[in-house]
Sequence to fold (964 residues):
Amino acid sequence: MKIGVLMKQVPDTETKIRIKDDASGIVTDGIKWVMNPYDEYAVEEALRIKEKKAGSTVAIISMGPKRSVETIRTGLAMGADSGILIDDPAFEGADCYATAKVLAKVLEPEKFDLLLCGKQAIDDDSAQVPQTVAELLGIPQAMVIEKLIISDDGKKATCYRRVEGGAKEVLEVELPAIIAAEKGLNEPRYASLPGIMKAKSKPMKEVNLSTLGLKAEEVGAKGAKLKVKKYSLPADKAPGKIVPGEPEDAARALVKMLREEAKVV
Amino acid sequence: MIETAQREVFGHIPHALEIGHYVLSVLAVVFLAYGIYRRFNIWRMGKIEGREGAFKPGIKGMLEDVFLLMESPSVMSNYFKRLWRFIRDGALQLRPLRELYPGLMHILIFWGIAILLVGALVDAVDHYISLFLSPALHFNQGFFYIGFSIFLEFVGLGFVLGPAIAIFRRYIQRPPRLSDTKGEDALVLGLLLFIAVSGFLLEGLGQVLDQPAWGKWSFVGFGIASVLKPLGFAGSLYVPVWFMHQVTALAFIAIIPYTKLFHIITSSMTLYLAPVDEAKGALSTPFSLKEMMEATTEVQFKLGADRIEDFTFSQLVSLDGCTRCGRCQDNCPAHLSERPLSPKELIQDLKTHMLEKAKAISQGKEAKPLHEEAIKAESLWACTTCRNCIEHCPVGIQHLPFIMDLRRSLVGEAKIDHLQRQSLMNTTNNYNPWGIAFSDRAAWAADLKIPRAAEGDFEYLYFVGCAGTYDQKAQKIALAMVKVMRAAGIKFAILGEQEKCCGEWVRRLGDEGLYQQLVMDNTEVMNQAGVKKIITACPHCFTTLKDEYPTLGGKYEVFHQSQLVSEWVRSGRIALKKELDLKVAYHDSCYLGRYNDIYEQPRSLIQAIPKTQLVEIERNHNKSFCCGAGGGGMWAEFEKGRKPSELRLEMALKSDPGMIVTACPYCMTMFEDAMKVKDIEGKVQLKDVVELVAEHMAV
Ligand SMILES: Cc1cc2nc3c(=O)[nH]c(=O)nc-3n(C[C@H](O)[C@H](O)[C@H](O)COP(=O)(O)OP(=O)(O)OC[C@H]3O[C@@H](n4cnc5c(N)ncnc54)[C@H](O)[C@@H]3O)c2cc1C
Ligand code: SF4
Ligand code: SF4
Fold:
């Protein structure tokens, strides 16, 4: 099977986000960039399928600035075979649609049997790109998947996901399709040194606006349907309080606080 | 009368039996030599410095290897130190004697055999020189003979007593650590006892026949003779008993390489071959990440060991050196907290695997894999790297290098669990195991105006470590140390946001790649800032910075804070005036104590506080019981067994302290958690020794 994994490089979850002075975006220096955690599940799942199906290959595809190469290499160190970096100044300022458009353009000629991705990128938290890519490519999609079974002939995928109320939904899709990983799909493996060393010599393709044959007006901020007006940080949360003492006294004090200070009861 | 005292060698023995005895002796030696040769070939499966590729079987390959070994530094370096250790711990038995009861038992057998062998040798030499050279050279007679006989009589008694005690201990007392008793134990002990008893019997029977005037000097034999003589037929027993005594003694020699008796040879070798480095804690450096990253072509390398052949010759010898005494296991926190690890079983399992592998190779078959089949990963992860096994092994077996190389190969294949992966990923991304933002690395010192090393002008770099940086309770240790350093008036700086995890636990977890990356980053910053002397808050940072960074380009003079503070208190730079009327129990950290022999400095600080009474916890100093945090244990979860920290807390509470004092932030965290579980928080205080100093300084 030829498997493609869509991967986005995002700021580490511990990053202290700072907003630019003009509120047009976030300050990116001092940020540690990592693989979107949901995409780690996607890479891992791809590798597990590859291990089961002889002759399979896994490619990591990412649109982003040059630094994204390092994160693609992390995927290669985990065991993927090749990488595609989609990078061009013209792609800057893309929204989910503009991103999906470029991704679809790259994916189309590659003819992957299966596309895996994360259910959402933890930076913008949109959960839009995979669905849009599926639409543009005209292939089925299954989102927020916790368990995935590929049929022996590699033509069909059975996908499990949780829906409201704790029930399980089972989807069956024809391949090729795009499937988005939810936490719990698997335990991603660790990219340790032997993997990192092997990754150094694995093929990495770079594509840009001209190699894709796209026009600058179609992509990036210009091609976006959505404009971010401004960024702002959420208000600081007031610090929590611990009510000390024996349970009975503490409960009494708590009720008093809820009545008099918080005025909620 | 005494002047003529002597004993005739081969007296009363028919000539045919004498010849038979020589034939059997030759046979015994052939058996012995063949056994050693076979085993030597098995050890050669291991790596030998200077040998490319796998070992070549046969005598020629063996000779080549012997020559390589004679040139190899791990065999020939520090020759005199090794020899001295061999004499002290092996010949004089000082190491086994650290445990008095089994130590005495062993010394009775060991010295029994050794001296009686010398006795036999003296007999033999005397016999042959007077036979073949000149009767005038005959020396074993007269006063010498009598004196020597009396001496051997006492040794012989010990030699009866030794195996008797061993039998009593193994089969009647049955301590848990001898739970794996095998058939060969009975064989060997029975054989020893038989040789000892038949020796005395023979002596008695000899006296019945000869009735020498000087007989009473061999008092045991004399006693036996006086009991047996009235029986009349006793004399006729002499020849059969002699024969049986000889046969068992020769059998003893012949079976050495095929039974646990082999330890006479292999334990001696192990003791000699064990490393003699000053830096006890340093793990091997299998490659240089820096060179590998700079290389333009793909570098072939192997991470750790996943086959028995990946260990060294010396390591394989040491597997045979294990006597199954169980001392390691009796001191192992993982074993004592019922986790799935016994260092003794680990060594035995490796040994069994080594023999199976050798057999499989000789039959051209596939051997079962080392990981999971021979050694379970869960045992490897259960180790806290506390070093107690090595500290107490009487023959100098180094368990940790085995465990570390096995872990390295597991990590290389990404066979780690999600918690381990998480802490390694956290450290990759944020340079600390908790994954707290690296940009907050200096937040603990926000208002303290401590100069940064990059700005120059400092004598000591204070390397705070991840715990002192991010852990709320450990932050207090760092803050206290800042107070103490300021009071002592020394010039210090911190790395601030540029400090990264020292990597100690990363390396012990088996991730050599990430470890070396951290070392490269830290040394680059420290070398640039011109760091010469480092003070660490944590014994783990201390060990790796001091003992392991030098091989990777970071050479500094490194101190643990308790060392310097105790020096400042001793010299009067810091005066401890405030009283503390309390019983204070001190817990030895493994990495401060066993790894670095720092036992007294932290204690001296507690004792320097007026009115404070220092109390010892059971298992203290080099026997200290690990808190469970080392070797990655801090970030691991175990399904099986109890928490070592809770066991340790129970031990500490037995000494009824008002305060428990540690000198390691890991121990502190572990105690803190255990105290929460035991619900004694607030009833017994918990402090680092430097906090104690900061609170009782006269300012
Ligand atoms: C449950 C949910 C509901 C939402 N509902 C709404 C709504 O109703 N209206 C609204 O306006 N917004 C909604 N949002 C937010 C929203 O849609 C965005 O702001 C956005 O469009 C940014 O996309 P992203 O980069 O986060 O990519 P996502 O679409 O979140 O990314 C998902 C996956 O796509 C792949 N991917 C994304 N970018 C790349 C790339 N550059 N290269 C390669 N692969 C990539 C990765 O596999 C990634 O894991 C919702 C979000 C969530 C989580
Ligand atoms: S280092 Fe400690 S935990 Fe590990 S095997 Fe030895 S005694 Fe047990
Ligand atoms: S490893 Fe050492 S301490 Fe442990 S059983 Fe063997 S000889 Fe005894």
Remarks:
- Residues 99-275 of chain B form a domain with the Fumarate Reductase Cytochrome B subunit fold (CATH 1.20.950).
